[in-house]
Write a structure and sequence with these properties.
Nucleotidyltransferase, domain 5; Substrate Binding Domain Of DNAk, Chain A, domain 1; seven-stranded mixed sheet; 29 strands; 3 domains; Actin, Chain A, domain 4; alpha+beta; binds adenosine monophosphate; 30% strand
Length: 554
C-alpha cells in the first residue's frame, strides 16, 4: 500500500456478533481472528467496575451479572430513549456500540501488529437516518475515521460478486441475522454492483427465534412443576434460558432434537426440544420473511425487474435448515448459503480496500497531471480516465497487487434508499399529510426540488418538518412517519399566500440528507444537513469520546 493511501478495514457491527476483515497482500478478503482465535465476537458488553469487557466472556457473565451486561444494543441504535445506567453513568447505544468496535479493532491490531485508523462499518439496509448516523457516531466515539457506512446486503453482494467468479446476474440477498432481516435485490455486473430494491424488518432476527424457545421452555417448566410462576422475572434464570435457547437453536441446525436443562429455585426440569416443535413455534416468523420478500419483489417489478437468477442466504440465522427449505419451496429455486458469518465483514473490507486503491489512483493521476496537493481532491473521474491504464500500473507496482485486482477496484457500487423522505404539507382538504420528495428504493445519490406555496398572506416563516417514512406513495399519512429534523425559513413581510418556496432534498450514497429551501422573490435561502436529534452529538458526543479514552476495553 502506498504511504499516502491508508489501509481501510471493514467492520460488521452485528446485533449478536461482530467481526473485522481486511484485504490481504494477495487481494483476498480475510477475517481477522479475535483474541480467542474466533472469527466472530459476541456483540455483548459487560461493565466490570471501571472497565468494559466485550465478547464471549461478557456473554457468559450475563448469567451471573445480568444487570451489568448489555446485549442486542444494535436494536436500540438511534433511539434516544435507550439509556443504560451503570455506576451512576449513562450510556447511549452509540457509546455501548463503540466498545464493541474498539474490541474487534484492538484484537485485530494485536494480531496484525499494526495500527488501525480507518474503517468502513456496515448497517442493515433497513436502517434510517438516525440509526445510520448513530452507527457512524459509534465508530467515531471509538476513535476511528469512519470512511463510510454501507449496507450489509450490499457488502454481502460485493463479497459474493468478487469471490464467486460468474457472469452478470440479478441476485436476491436474503439476510437473516441476529436482530434484523434484510431482503435486497442486486444486479451484479462486471463493472457495477447495483442495488435495485430493498426491504425487511429491523426487529426480526435470530433473537426472535430464541425468544420463542424461551417462551416454550417457560411453558414446559410450568407444566412439569405444575406452577404458574413466571420464572423469567428472575433475571438470572431469564439470562440462563436465553443462552440455553440460542445454544439449543444452533444444535437444532444440525440435529433433530436437543435436551435443554432448566434450573430455577432448586427445581431442575429437562426438556427435550425437537426440531419439528421448534419449527412449529417459529413458523410465523419465517412466514414474515417470505411476505417481506414478496413485498420487495413487487417493488422491484415497478423498476422493471420481473426476474432474478439466484437467491443467496447470508446472516447466521440462515443456517437454520427450515430457512433454505421454505425459500426453495416458495420461490422454486434452491438458494445458496453463502459464507453466512463472514460475507458482510469481507464485503466491507473489499469496499474499504476499493476506497483506498481509488485514493491511490487519484494521487497518482494528480501527480501525472501535474496537480498540487491542494488540487488532489479536485481530480475528476474524467481526468482519471485519461491516464487510467498508466495509473493502474503505477498503483499495482506501488502496492504489489495484481493489475486485475486494481482493475476490480473500479467496479461501481450503486445503492438505493431504504426509506422515503418528505415534508409535512396540507392537502386540498387542509388535512396534514406527508408529501414525499424522495421515495424509497430511489437510486442514490439523488436530488429533487419541489415547489410549495405559503399558506397565508404575510406569513412570517415556513417551518419545514422533515419526515422519514416507509411509504412508497408520494402522499402518505403522517402517522407512519418519524420527524428527523426541522428547518425554518424566515420570510420578508408582505408576501401573499401561495408564494412559491422551492424545497430541495439531496440524499447522498450513505443516506445523509441535505435540505435547501428558497423563497425566490428575495433569494432567501436556508440550508440544513439533517442532524438528527436522536443521535448523540455536540457536547455530549465530545464527552462520550473523552470518556471512551478513559475506559479500558478487553
Ligand atoms: P449475524 O447477525 O449474521 O451474525 O447472525 C447471528 C445470528 O445467527 C444469531 O441469532 C445466532 O444465534 C444465529 N446463528 C448462528 N449460527 C447459527 C446456527 N448454526 N443455527 C441457527 N442460528 C445460528
Amino acid at each position: 500500500m502506498s504511504a499516502k493511501s491508508k489501509k481501510i478495514f471493514g467492520i460488521d457491527l452485528g446485533t449478536t456478533y461482530s467481526s473485522l476483515a481486511m484485504v490481504d497482500d494477495y487481494g483476498k478478503p480475510v477475517v481477522i481472528p479475535n483474541s480467542d482465535n474466533q472469527h466472530i465476537t459476541p456483540s455483548v458488553v459487560f461493565f466490570d467496575g471501571e472497565n468494559v469487557v466485550v465478547g464471549e466472556v461478557a456473554k457468559e457473565s450475563s448469567k451471573i451479572y445480568p444487570n451489568d451486561v448489555v446485549s442486542f444494543v444494535k436494536r436500540s441504535m438511534g433511539e434516544p430513549a435507550f439509556i443504560f445506567e451503570h455506576d451512576g453513568k449513562m450510556f447511549r447505544a452509540e457509546e455501548i456500540s463503540s466498545f464493541i468496535i474498539r474490541k474487534v479493532v484492538q484484537d485485530a491490531e494485536l494480531y496484525l501488529n499494526e495500527k488501525i485508523t480507518d474503517v468502513v462499518i456496515t448497517c442493515p439496509a433497513y436502517f434510517g437516518i438516525n440509526e445510520r448516523e448513530a452507527t457512524r457516531r459509534a465508530g467515531e466515539i471509538a476513535g476511528y475515521n469512519v470512511r463510510q457506512i454501507i449496507n450489509e446486503p450490499t457488502a454481502a453482494a460485493i463479497a459474493y460478486g468478487t469471490l464467486e467468479s460468474m457472469g452478470d446476474k440479478v441476485v436476491l440477498v436474503y439476510d437473516l441475522g441476529g436482530g434484523t432481516f434484510d431482503i435486497t435485490m442486486i444486479d451484479i455486473q462486471s463493472n457495477a454492483i447495483e442495488v435495485i430494491c430493498t426491504g425487511g424488518d429491523h426487529n426480526l432476527g435470530g433473537k426472535d427465534w430464541d425468544d420463542r424457545i424461551v417462551a416454550y421452555l417457560l411453558q414446559e417448566f410450568q407444566n412439569t412443576t405444575k406452577t404458574e410462576e413466571d420464572i423469567l422475572e428472575d433475571p438470572d434464570t431469564c439470562q440462563d434460558l436465553l443462552l440455553s435457547a440460542e445454544k439449543a437453536k444452533k444444535v437444532l441446525s444440525q440435529r433433530d432434537k436437543t435436551p435443554v436443562l432448566i434450573t430455577h429455585g432448586g427445581e431442575r426440569v429437562k426438556v427435550l426440544l425437537e426440531r419439528k416443535k421448534f419449527e412449529e413455534i417459529t413458523q410465523d416468523l419465517l412466514e414474515r420473511t417470505v411476505a417481506l420478500t414478496h413485498e420487495m419483489l413487487e417493488e422491484a417489478k415497478k423498476k422493471g425487474y420481473w426476474n432474478y437468477d439466484e437467491i443467496i442466504l447470508v446472516g447466521g440465522s440462515s443456517r437454520m435448515p427450515q430457512v433454505a427449505t421454505r425459500i426453495a419451496q416458495e420461490f422454486s429455486t434452491t438458494p445458496r448459503i453463502f459464507d453466512p458469518d463472514e460475507a458482510v465483514a469481507k464485503g466491507a473490507a473489499i469496499y474499504g480496500w476499493k476506497l483506498s486503491i481509488n485514493e491511490g489512483m487519484k494521487q497518482k493521476a494528480a501527480e501525472k497531471t501535474g496537480k498540487t496537493a491542494e488540487q488532489l481532491e479536485a481530480v475528476s473521474d474524467e481526468e482519471l480516465n485519461g491516464v487510467l491504464e498508466e495509473v493502474e500500473q503505477l498503483v499495482a507496482d506501488d502496492t504489489g497487487y495484481d493489475i486485475s485486482d486494481i482493475k476490480r477496484s473500479r467496479v461501481q457500487i450503486k445503492n438505493v434508499t431504504s426509506k422515503s423522505f418528505g415534508i409535512i404539507a396540507h392537502d386540498s382538504n387542509d388535512q396534514e399529510v406527508i408529501f414525499n420528495l424522495i421515495l424509497k428504493n430511489t437510486a442514490v445519490p439523488t436530488v429533487i426540488t419541489k415547489t410549495f406555496g405559503t399558506a397565508i398572506d404575510d406569513q412570517e416563516a415556513v417551518s419545514i418538518q422533515i419526515m422519514e417514512n416507509e411509504s412508497s406513495e408520494t402522499i402518505a399519512p403522517p402517522e407512519q412517519a418519524v420527524v428527523i429534523g426541522t428547518a425554518v425559513l424566515n420570510l420578508p413581510t408582505g408576501l401573499s399566500a401561495d408564494t412559491p418556496i422551492d424545497i430541495t432534498f439531496k440524499l447522498n450514497e450513505e443516506g445523509r440528507l441535505e435540505i435547501t429551501a428558497v423563497e425566490s422573490s428575495e433569494s432567501r435561502r436556508i440550508k440544513a444537513t439533517v442532524k438528527t436529534r436522536s443521535v448523540i452529538q455536540g457536547e455530549e458526543f465530545e464527552k462520550a469520546k473523552a470518556r471512551s479514552k478513559s475506559i479500558a476495553v478487553s
